[in-house]
Automatic annotation (TrEMBL), chain A:
<dbReference type="GO" id="GO:0005886">
    <property type="term" value="C:plasma membrane"/>
</dbReference>
<keyword id="KW-0813">Transport</keyword>
<protein>
    <recommendedName>
        <fullName>Spermidine/putrescine transport system permease protein PotC</fullName>
    </recommendedName>
</protein>
<feature type="transmembrane region" description="Helical">
    <location>
        <begin position="72"/>
        <end position="92"/>
    </location>
</feature>
<feature type="transmembrane region" description="Helical">
    <location>
        <begin position="113"/>
        <end position="134"/>
    </location>
</feature>
<feature type="domain" description="ABC transmembrane type-1">
    <location>
        <begin position="68"/>
        <end position="264"/>
    </location>
</feature>
<comment type="function">
    <text>Required for the activity of the bacterial periplasmic transport system of putrescine and spermidine.</text>
</comment>
<dbReference type="GO" id="GO:0055085">
    <property type="term" value="P:transmembrane transport"/>
</dbReference>
<dbReference type="InterPro" id="IPR051789">
    <property type="entry name" value="Bact_Polyamine_Transport"/>
</dbReference>
From TrEMBL, chain B:
<protein>
    <recommendedName>
        <fullName>Spermidine/putrescine import ATP-binding protein PotA</fullName>
        <ecNumber>7.6.2.11</ecNumber>
    </recommendedName>
</protein>
<keyword id="KW-1003">Cell membrane</keyword>
<dbReference type="GO" id="GO:0005524">
    <property type="term" value="F:ATP binding"/>
</dbReference>
<feature type="domain" description="ABC transporter">
    <location>
        <begin position="2"/>
        <end position="236"/>
    </location>
</feature>
<dbReference type="GO" id="GO:0015594">
    <property type="term" value="F:ABC-type putrescine transporter activity"/>
</dbReference>
<keyword id="KW-0547">Nucleotide-binding</keyword>
<dbReference type="Pfam" id="PF08402">
    <property type="entry name" value="TOBE_2"/>
</dbReference>
<dbReference type="InterPro" id="IPR017871">
    <property type="entry name" value="ABC_transporter-like_CS"/>
</dbReference>
<dbReference type="InterPro" id="IPR005893">
    <property type="entry name" value="PotA-like"/>
</dbReference>
Length: 268, 357
């Protein structure tokens, strides 16, 4: 590094203050959200004692139940499909001789990271509207396909990273020991790729679970997912029930992301 | 018998094409410990990978007992490799690693178990059968890699610098171990190394490679005593190079006139020049010091360097250049000669080797 030992950002005046400010800005709202989810009052801003009533209220709310189930179905289906596609794409971009168009493929796979989400949402809305007119189908698959599309890069990147980090001579050793390409993949590559695949699938699941913009545009009437349901609620009466749902969603996301980090760290 | 016939491998294309192998031809015999020796980048590993099937040659043919190897995928070739990095499967135990090849061949479970047991015995690893490969030492990993490659009883075992990661003492032990395994199994070993000592110790025959071509093939003694050209003489061991004039040559027997004017019989490499200026190579331990006026090349003694087992005498020749004489030491025998003394270098008829270039 050209920087040498002279410049150490942590020793600059005001560093601690700025860092603390950042943490407060990031986490204080979340802490408040969680705290107020246990509020006994009907107000989201005034503390009225500890209670689990809003959790109970959310659990008993049929629309919340439906939206949750729908969210989980979409996220599960989309993360499985996206991971499958990502494994194929990752193998094709790391386990073949360099071929013309490899970079293009890389760009296409990662397109959802670069195109503004709202643009994709509008495009999908129009595209699916045309299909709806042509076929009359109005089911959940539009959402699953849309989610799959934007989840692929999130599944692709950890899987590709894992493949690139793997020792290629292991696959050569397998071939040398009479394993056909398929056997070598199943017995040598895949067992080592599993942490990457699981990590990719989890990341895709969280991303799908969390999506608002594309879902809002693509969904048909009565196809609310948990996030779009919450968005809809905010336009009416805001009750601490929203806090309770958010906190539950937060817990699931944090758990999955933590699992993701542990899986990507387990290199050996 | 492996017959490698005019194999060429070009990496890249057009302007930045690199000729890793340039019309290499060699026949490796059955049950032979054959070594490919050369500096890094000489093409020895590429040639090994051509035999294994990981590199497709641009031109040429490779056959194993008449069977065309180039038409077979790596997993179809009756050839196994010990990789430089060992390439042990990290998610399997020692025993599972060794059994992998047999399993892929579709051998019944009972036979796999029995052969794995035999292999574990052969490399003395029976106690560690159920360990993960990450839980054993480098030397043990090396033996597992060997056992894994030997287990399917390949007709040829390819070894890609398998000892380079081991420390000195372990390397010495493994050299003997490899030699033992080769004679016990009767499998043809093709061994790649850049370590001349390793090559001289273990091989039945050595092919010295440089810049994508084989420069000389022969037994260790042949290669060492009678290097055919400057590169070989220089790469293996220490050598004195003398300017001389070739007077007559008849088969291997040559007559040369040294720079001092003295004439002596020498050995000529095949395919050398008929007459004219040549280079003669003489190993330091094949020459001796003589009193002034008696030897072949008079000069003045420079550095005398004591090495424990032997002493090196650096002689500045009157005809120009420096000649090193190596003499084995005897106990309590002080060296009478010292820097600046007039001496003469002497070596017997047939000792000098006339080089091809």
């Amino acid at each position: 590094m050209a920087r040498g030992k002279g410049f150490d950002v942590t020793r600059q005046p005001g560093f601690t203050t700025v860092a603390l400010l950042c943490f407060v800005m990031l986490y204080l709202p979340i802490v408040l959200l969680v705290v107020f989810s246990f509020n006994d009052s009907t107000s989201v801003a005034e503390w009225g004692g500890f209670s689990l009533r809003w959790y109970q209220s959310a659990l008993e709310n049929e629309r919340v139940q439906e939206a949750t189930i729908r969210s989980v179905i979409i996220a599960t289906a989309a993360s499985i499909l996206a991971t499958g596609a990502a494994v194929g794409a990752a193998l094709a971009t790391t386990r073949t001789r360099p071929w013309r168009g490899q970079t293009v493929v890389f760009a296409i796979v990662n397109q959802p990271l670069m195109v503004p989400e709202i643009v994709t949402a509008v495009a999908l809305l129009i595209f699916f509207a045309m299909i709806k007119v042509a076929t009359g189908y109005t089911g959940l698959w539009y959402l699953i396909i849309a989610h799959t599309a934007f989840c692929i890069p999130f599944a692709f990147l950890p899987i590709r990273a894992r493949l690139q980090g793997m020792d290629l001579t292991l696959e050569q050793a397998a071939a040398d020991l009479y394993a056909t390409p398929w056997q070598a993949f199943r017995r040598v590559t895949l067992p080592q790729l599993w942490p990457g695949i699981l990590a990719g699938a989890m990341l895709a699941f969280v991303i799908s679970l969390d999506d608002v913009v594309i879902t809002e545009f693509v969904k048909s009437a009565g196809q609310d997912t948990l996030p779009t349901y919450m968005l809809g609620q905010l336009r009416r009466v805001v009750t601490p029930e929203i806090n309770a749902i958010s906190t539950a969603l937060l817990a699931v996301s944090v758990l999955l992301v933590m699992a993701f980090f542990f899986l990507s760290r387990s290199r050996k | 018998m492996i017959e490698i016939d005019r194999v060429t491998k070009v990496f890249g294309s057009a302007a930045d094409a690199f000729r890793a192998l340039d019309t290499v031809s060699v026949t490796i015999r059955q049950n032979e410990f054959f070594t490919l020796l050369g500096p890094s980048g000489c093409g020895k590993t590429t040639l090994l990978r051509v035999i294994a099937g990981f590199v497709d040659p641009t031109e040429g043919s490779v056959t194993l007992e008449g069977q065309d190897l180039l038409r077979l995928a790596p997993y179809e070739r009756p050839v196994n490799t010990v990789f430089q990095s060992y390439a042990l499967f990290p998610h399997m135990t020692v025993a599972q690693n060794i059994g992998f090849g047999l399993e892929m061949q579709g051998k019944p479970g009972e036979e796999v178990r029995r052969t794995v047991g035999e292999m574990l015995d052969l490399v003395r690893m029976s106690e560690l059968a159920d360990r993960r490969t990450s839980e054993i030492s480098g030397g043990q990993q090396q033996r597992v890699a060997l056992a894994r490659a030997l287990a399917p009883r390949p007709r040829v075992l390819l070894l890609d610098e398998p000892l380079s990661a081991l420390d000195f003492k372990l390397r010495k032990d493994m050299q003997l171990e490899l030699k033992r395994l080769q004679s016990e199994t009767g499998i043809t070993f093709v061994f790649v190394t850049h370590d001349q000592e390793e090559a001289l110790t273990m091989s039945d025959r050595i092919a010295v490679m440089n810049a994508g071509a084989i420069r000389q093939i022969g037994s260790p003694r042949d290669i060492y005593d009678h290097p055919a050209e400057r590169f070989v003489a220089d790469f293996i061991g220490d050598t004195n190079f003398l300017e001389a004039e070739l007077l007559t040559v008849e088969g291997e027997r040559a007559e040369v006139r040294l720079a001092s004017g003295r004439e002596i019989a020498a050995r000529a490499a095949e395919g050398g020049a008929g007459q004219g200026p040549v280079t003669v190579a003489v190993r330091p331990e094949h020459a001796d010091l003589a009193p002034e006026g008696e030897g072949l090349l008079p000069g003045r003694l420079g550095d005398v360097v004591y090495f424990g087992t032997d002493t090196h005498f650096h002689v500045d020749l009157d005809a120009g250049g420096r000649f090193v004489v190596r003499r084995q030491n005897q106990p309590d025998q002080a060296e009478a000669r010292g820097r600046g003394d007039r001496v003469s270098v002497r070596f017997g008829p047939g000792v000098g080797q006339v080089l091809r270039d």
